[in-house]
Specification:
Layout lengths: L25 E4 L5 H12 L3 E6 L3 H15 L3 E5 L5 H15 L4 E4 L14 H29 L10 E6 L12 H21 L4 E8 L14 H8 L10 H12 L10 E4 L14
Parallel strand pairs: 1-2, 1-4, 2-3, 4-5, 5-6, 6-7
This protein binds beta-D-glucopyranose.
Length: 285
């Protein structure tokens, strides 16, 4: 976190400790050892969910997060190492979760990465890695979650839905991004993956949505906010004139996973300070 760039106020709404929107629910968050995934895991736990903190690297951070969650939120949690782009890893992770927690109510498909390169220099390895983790990984985890949601159905005392999937996508599911064709293609793919799955499983009372963040202060985009010059440049793309924080995403995810959002299905929620508003047109066009 960079303190010198926090000159603009970041209004933080307190979460009422009495409200446990996700009490008794079991959540899996992929890529939860850092960044947005970590923020989501904390907010879901604060809302009363037991959480599985998936990670691929960064075991120490995942273990520390689990301890923090167990101590402060009064819920159960464990860390699990798995590569979401590996089918066997994903199957084993769901087996472990169902053995430990009995079932799954919420999947947050968050694990993702960037391997940026100009298109004429992009290697097949860079392309494949991004598509495999960001898109195929989301498919593999969604598939396993839906199997369990369908098998178990609705338990009304827990939630009026049989299950909830939140794909963490990006504003780049709709904003083209030069130099990041693999990443933008993966997120565009996630958008229609989400909508197609949502259409298919809605009759089973399973809700599937995207959260599509803009620039959030995490390790994936350090270059975009670390120096004052970079931060100022970034602000040209954000009408609301502040970078996003992981709590902005985490709180929305907790609400979207809860029954308060029960009629929201098959849509993308852009959490981006207005990045998708084509800010260049504020003075041009
Ligand atoms: C990317 C970030 C970027 C943001 C806005 C995200 O999906 O991972 O690197 O800052 O989109 O462009």
């Amino acid at each position: 976190m960079n303190e010198e760039n926090t000159n603009l106020p970041n209004v933080v709404m307190p979460v009422c400790p009495e409200v446990k929107m996700l009490k008794g629910q079991k959540a899996l968050i992929t890529g939860a050892n850092s960044g947005i995934g970590k923020g989501v895991a904390i907010e879901l736990a604060k809302a009363g969910a037991d959480v599985v903190v998936n990670y691929r690297g960064g075991e120490q951070a995942a273990i520390e997060l689990v301890e923090q969650i167990k101590t402060n939120c009064g819920v159960n949690a464990f860390a699990y190492q798995a590569d979401v782009s590996n089918e066997n890893d994903v199957k084993a992770m769901f087996e472990k979760m169902i053995n430990e927690f009995g079932t799954i109510d919420i999947l947050v498909n968050n694990a993702g990465l960037q391997k940026d390169a100009p298109i004429d220099e992009m290697t097949l390895e860079q392309w494949n890695t991004v598509i495999n983790v960001n898109l195929t990984g989301q498919f593999l985890c969604a598939r396993e979650a839906i199997k369990e949601f369908k098998r178990r159905g609705v338990r009304e005392e827990i939630s009026v839905a049989a299950g909830k999937i939140i794909h963490i996508s990006s504003v780049h599911e709709v904003i083209p991004w030069a130099g990041h064709a693999n990443y933008a293609a993966s997120k565009g793919g996630v958008m229609l993956l989400m909508k197609s799955i949502a259409q298919e499983v809605a009759p089973f009372r399973i809700r599937v949505n995207n959260i599509s963040p803009g620039a959030i202060r995490t390790p994936i985009n350090t270059d975009a906010w670390r120096t004052p010059a970079a931060y100022n440049d970034l602000m040209k793309l954000i009408p609301y004139k502040r970078i996003g924080e992981v709590e902005d995403i985490g709180r929305a995810a907790a609400w979207l996973a809860s029954d308060y959002a029960d009629y929201i299905n098959g849509t993308s929620i852009y959490i981006d300070g207005g990045m998708t508003l084509y800010p260049g047109f504020a003075t041009g066009g």
